[in-house]
Amino acid sequence: MRYIIVGTGNISNTYVAALQKLSGSELVGAVSRAGRPLRMAPALPVWSDLAEVDREFDAVILATPNGLHHEGAVQAAALGKHVLTEKPLDISRAAMDNMIAACASAKVVLAVCYQRRTSPDNQSIKKLLQQQAFGKIFAADLSAKFYRDQAYYDSGVYRGTWAIDGGGPFMQQACHNIDIYTWFFGLPKKVTSLLGRFAHEMEAEDHGAALLQYANGMIGTLVASTAARPGFAAHLEVHTEKGSFTLTDDRITFWDIAGISNPADTQFNYTHDGATSAAVTDTTAHETIIRDFEAAVRTGSEPLASAESARLTTELILQIYANDIAQTVHAP
C-alpha cells in the first residue's frame, strides 16, 4: 500500500520509521499546510493540500492535531482513499459522526492507531473478558499519572486547548490507557468527575479524577495527569470474584485469579510508556497496527481499533469533561 502522511509534526516521525520497516508499505509523500517536510524523509514531496497530491496512493495516515482528524478523513474519503488516523478518533461527537459516515459512504476503511491494543497481555485479558472467565468484576481502577513540563505546552499553540487538542491529559496523553479501559469494559451508565489545573499555564485540565458506575454494578475510577512529577507508569488494577490482576504499561505485573493461569507474555517488550515524553522510538506496535489496517483493506475484516470502537473512548472522555462537578476549567 502507498501512503500519504497528513501532518508533518513530531508524531509523523513514528509513522515514517514504522513504514520504513514494512516491506509491503510505501510512503510516497506528505501534506503540510506550512510546507514543512518530513524530518525523517526530507526528500519526499510535500503538498499543502491533499487535493493537490499528484502521485498514486491508496491511503492516508492522519498525523494532525486531534481536532483536525475529521477534516483529513472526510477529504480522503471523498478521494476514495482509506484512512488510518492517530488517536483519538476526534474530539467531538459531530466530528466523529461525520468522518465515520463519510468513510462508510465511500466504502473505505477508517481505523485508529490505538496501538496499546496490540499488547499480547491486553489481548489475553480481552479474550478472558469476552469469555466472562473472571465472573463478576466489581472494581477497575486506572491511574495514568504522567508529567509534561511547561515547555511541552508552549511548543504548540494548540496544546492543552479545548478547540484543537480537545482537552488535557484525559483527551491527549491518557486516552491510550482510557481506550484499553473502554475496550475492556465499555461505557458506564454514570460519570462523576473532578478536574483541575495545578502545574501549567493552559486552557484545559492538567489533573483530574473520575468515578464511574456501570450497569452491572462495577465501580471504576480513572485518574489522568500531566502534573504528577516526575511521571509514573500507567497501571490498571482489576478486582473480580475470582481474584485480582494488575496491568502496568500493558504488561500483566500481578496475577491472582483462581483457576486461571497467568497468561502474561514474557517476550513482550514494547518500550514506550508515555510517563515523561510523547516521543515514540519503538515502532513495533505501530507496525502491527499498520499491518492490521492493510489486512482490513485487503480482506474486509474489522480493524483492531475500528472507528466505531474507538469512538467509545472519546465518548467516555467527553462525559468526564461534561460531568466535572468542580467546573474549574470550563470544559465546553
Chain-wise SSE layout:
Elements: E1 2-6, H1 10-20, E2 26-31, E3 46-47, E4 59-62, H2 69-78, E5 82-86, H3 93-106, E6 110-113, H4 120-130, E7 137-145, H5 150-154, H6 175-185, E8 190-196, E9 207-213, E10 219-225, E11 235-240, E12 243-248, E13 251-257, H7 284-299, H8 307-322
Parallel strand pairs: 1-2, 1-4, 2-3, 4-5, 5-6, 7-10
Antiparallel strand pairs: 7-11, 8-9, 9-10, 11-12, 12-13
List keywords for this structure.
2 domains, about 325 residues, globular, alpha/beta, Dihydrodipicolinate Reductase, domain 2, Rossmann fold, 6-stranded parallel sheet, 13 strands
| DSSP summary, beta strand count | 13
Number of domains: 2
Low-confidence stretches: none
**Helical element count?**
8
Distance between the termini: 39 Å
Based on Cα principal axes, name the global outline: globular
Which CATH class of the largest domain is shown? Alpha Beta
Query: What can be said about the biggest beta sheet?
Result: 7 strands, mixed
Supply the CATH superfamily name of the largest domain. Dihydrodipicolinate Reductase, domain 2
Structural class: alpha/beta
| CATH-derived topology of the largest domain | Dihydrodipicolinate Reductase, domain 2
* CATH architect. name of the largest domain: 2-Layer Sandwich
Calculate Rg over CA atoms: 19 Å
**What oligomeric state best describes the polypeptide chains here?**
single chain
